[in-house]
User: Fold this.
Amino acid sequence: MIKYRLILLGVLLLKLGSVFTDCTEQEDQNRRNTIQWFIRKAQDSFTCLDVYLGIDNLINSGNQQLLINNETDNYKVPLDSSKCLIIISNKLTEVDAVLKLGYSPSLVIILQQDVSNHLNHLDLRRLTIFSKCLSTFTYWDLHKQKFSGVWSTYYSTVVFDKSQDLTHQDSFYNQKIRVGYNEIPVFFSLINDNSDSQTQEGLWLRTFTDKYKLQPLFINANYSMGGKDPDTGDWLGIIGMVRYDEVDLAVGSLGTDPEINEFLSPSPQLGESYASWVTRYPGQVSPAYNILKVFDKYTWTGILVSMIFATAVLLFLSNLIKSLGFEQPDNVLIALLPLSLLNAEGMPDWFLFNNKRLLSGSLLVLIWALASTLLTFAFSCNLMAIVLSPATGVPLDTSSEIVERKMVS
Assistant:
């Protein structure tokens, strides 16, 4: 059973107790203000999920909030749909349990009980550590550079130690960046261990890295675009490399969908992907095809069945009359009678004896003669219409027509 508490828009549903119970109100407020500042810095324009591990929620940041009380086995389910995770806890072990599931948080905040030196034991990026009731904090930025600071009540903002070089804090300039790639002709390839500016995405990536003086480290995804494993639910391929923080960005003619957009941030659309095919130019249909298309397949089937049934009945009546001692023509002539009537030949007098007519046989021949007349008129009219207006093949408009015409091999 999954045991976690979901909190929307900062509405508190679970009370787990305060982190620091013996701090003054001002110290507690300074710490909350500092946490709020870092959350806003980390989330940028995204809506993040604030995850509190083993502690009460501290602030109302406007984000969705998730409170988990030591249920490390159940983190995976509620965290899968967020591309921005902010983890707040007082235990590194709880944070480590989340990291081992493959999640890459945008910010980690540790509320440390002791006042000893702040250490980044998990080698995290964007980690902030507070100590009990102290206004100071230690922050490791995007590149794991260490900075110390304090909340200033005078300026109502975070103030960092000016003895440190703050110009490179969370900066893209002159940093290493991991790039996952697939070599796709025209779209992306490498040349001299750098992106080929003769390809579409290679030009864009080269422009980006040159602008910020980045040092790209290219990691080959071996033509694996990525998808979700149906058994484990894990993401594979180059999508999984970005999802689980193996690379910082990915290139190589990639596509996206709403499910991927839940946890990754794709670039604006660079092109369209659509199915295409080539067919021959439609030409005139052969005469034999025109004749067959005079009637549809159901009409042709009905005509054939009717001819067989009429022939069988005529043969039965003729042989019955012959057994009674009356003269009858050969069975071959009787079997060809339905075809002869279709060819507009005369009505036979086979069922006329001593000026008396056999009603059943004569009625059958009369009905078949009328039906043959109608069929002959319909066939002649349809054939003349086709000959006067020769049919041409209809070109394909949609991919579904390929399946409907059974053109898939």
Summary: The first helix runs from residue 25 to 43. Residues 1 and 382 are 71 Å apart (CA to CA).
